[in-house]
């Protein structure tokens, strides 16, 4: 009988747990074995993802945050003010003070659903927010990769068996992301279109824009009355445009073409390309 990836990982997990329970008996050889088994487990996880992920069953399924008492469902898209939006939702059901975005995501006051909504939840008012894909990708990179401690904290060193190195440059990050399909993409750089749509069907009743956050958020039933959106994960004063070259603009535009077309970011692509062209000319380049 052939052992498939899920079964193989379960066996390795069992051996890892056995070694970990008896650290005093392992010695140097045991520690080497322990690390080797962890590497083996990560490789099996990556192989499992590659083998079993599909458009209908992606590595990162849709995530909804629910307020059942108000029949509201928020379709979460990472790096699009999701911490702030969840904080407002929490304020509708809890008086707890939130110190930071980690508190927001750890709270159990919001109900969480992965995949699709069913039963009464399918009739909830559903909303989400999208963002300029060029700015969103830089936000993900700055927040998750420019500080190595944050990379390790968020587990990127283990994503698809370490496919993303801890010291990756933004240009390398773009080229890598461009080659990863949405069914395997990590949530912070998965296309927004693949989250908002199932095929040609939009999964929500309202799509707001990060660039018009306060005005669009005011249109959400109940939550829109809570006008003050807390701001977590503030940018550190960088200009996302400075991360790009014209070649990278074309590469990212191709990767997120569905985002650009579905959510109306054609102008953002053109403006960024023109900015990069002007920057090349100012630096004495050909502007190509």
Number of strands: 7
- Count helical runs: 12
Strand content: 5-15%
Spatial order of the strands forming the largest sheet: 3-1-2-4-7
Compute the number of structural domains.
Answer: 2
Residue ranges: pLDDT <50 for 5 or more in a row? 1-5
Give the overall shape, derived from the CA principal axes.
globular
The biggest beta sheet reads: 5 strands, mixed
User: What's the average pLDDT?
Assistant: 81
Q: What assembly state would you assign to the polypeptide chains in this entry?
A: single chain
Describe, in plain words, how this protein is organized in 3D:
The protein is an alpha/beta fold. The protein has two domains: 5-52; 63-282, no CATH class. The protein is 47% helix and 9% strand. The chain is built from twelve helices and seven strands. The chain has helices at residues 5-21, 23-52, 82-91, 101-106, 133-145, 148-153, 170-178, 192-196, 213-217, 246-255, 257-263, 266-282; strands at 63-67, 72-75, 111-114, 125-130, 197-198, 201-202, 206-209. It has a five-stranded mixed beta sheet with strand order 3-1-2-4-7. Strands 5-6 form a two-stranded antiparallel sheet. A hairpin with a 4-residue loop joins strand 1 and strand 2 (72-75). The model is unreliable at 1-5 (pLDDT under 50).
Give the SSE map:
Elements: H1 5-21, H2 23-52, E1 63-67, E2 72-75, H3 82-91, H4 101-106, E3 111-114, E4 125-130, H5 133-145, H6 148-153, H7 170-178, H8 192-196, E5 197-198, E6 201-202, E7 206-209, H9 213-217, H10 246-255, H11 257-263, H12 266-282
Parallel strand pairs: 2-4, 4-7
Antiparallel strand pairs: 1-2, 1-3, 5-6
Helix pairs in contact: 1-2, 7-10, 10-12
